[in-house]
Glutamate--tRNA ligase (Azospirillum baldaniorum), 470 residues
Amino acid sequence: MTVVTRFAPSPTGFLHIGGARTALFNWLYARRNGGTYLLRIEDTDRQRSTDAAVDAILDGLSWLGLDWDGDAVSQFARKDRHAEVAQQMLAAGRAYYCYASPEELEEMRAAQKAAGQPVRYDGRWRDRDPSEAPAGVKPVIRLKAPQEGETVLKDRVQGEVTVQNAQLDDLILLRADGTPTYLLAVVVDDHDMGVTHVIRGDDHLTNTFRQIQIYNAMGWDLPEFGHIPLIHGPDGAKLSKRHGALGVDAYRDMGYLPEAIRNYLLRLGWGHGDDEIISTEQAVEWFNLEGIGRSPSRFDFAKLENLNAHYMRQADDARLVGLATPRLEAELGRALTESERDLLTRAMNGLKQRARTVVDLAQSARFYLAARPLAMDEKAAALLDEKGRGILTDLAARFEAEADFTAAALEGLVRAFAEERGEKLGKIAQPLRAALTGSTVSPPIFEVAEILGRAETLARMKDAATAARG
């Protein structure tokens, strides 16, 4: 059997982080088993579905690297096929016309509530002849569901789950206007697309029992189901925007890398021993449904940031320059020159060691591109007292005379300079750091000086030494 999975989002908003995890698990299971991963846009809710949301979903999946096989399928475009299946069940006696009016159904529900009974359709048209139909009422088509016995689901994540059929009513397959319901459309699409494994959130578990009845009514083979626990916030409550239930695009805007998001979402509910850092290649090799836990996972921004910092350090320098450049250009209000991009590429190895996100990276790189005289933060300015200015003046003369303007040579020069003055290295390096970066925190300062070059380094040192006097 060739494994076929699918991700089936509704285009009523962004691709949220929970949906991204569902897509990831389906993608991994298909890739792990040499199968097919399909994308279906469940756009039957025409009032809420938008082209912008479809574009956002496709963009989010592409950014995450979750490439799907073949073209994305529109569920709405298949509405005639869904209706055809409903008619087949009707002809086979597995479904029936229901002529109950909306007012009649509301009275039924009110009576059930008043009697303390579960609210469900009571089957009043289940065995009646359509000749009794009232004039002017367009019927819906309902499934003639089994009323006795039980429906058993052998779920790959939740284990065996059983529901008494008496708890399930005769669901609507086709509305009075001829449009299919979600439950029917999903089953028909999964069957026609050859889906072998339905991996989705456990909020769909109740739907699954109803969908199984549709499969049985049509005599179709059931796919295997795996219902994933939902993601909760750090406080254990249902994930909300304040916890991180944002669109994937928001995480990109916050400066996270797609490989870090993939790794984090993988570990959010699935495990492989004590491994925390799991590459995409390892994930494809190791992923299975048995590793998914049954309890909700808790979203933790601190863990995500730590993971992202790891992937930042591993990322290609040129790639990071490409990610940071638009943010820097927006702040500067101009395009970067080729020489500036080259400088950032040379500086990137030092910059990325401390950055947790691309946003951090861009902020920490600003001093390389800043116009002179450099703005100083409060701590940096405090270092440029009379002693600090004197150090810079004397040190600038030695830098100017140094033939080998490399980080190693400059470090040796400064160490010798510090020994001559009977100072610790930090007492010399910190005023230098303030002069070159405007801050007390930066990549290794001798590396910074080499990357800035002799002329810019000396100009910044002299600016700091003279401006402080004024």
In short: The first strand starts at residue 4 and ends at 7.
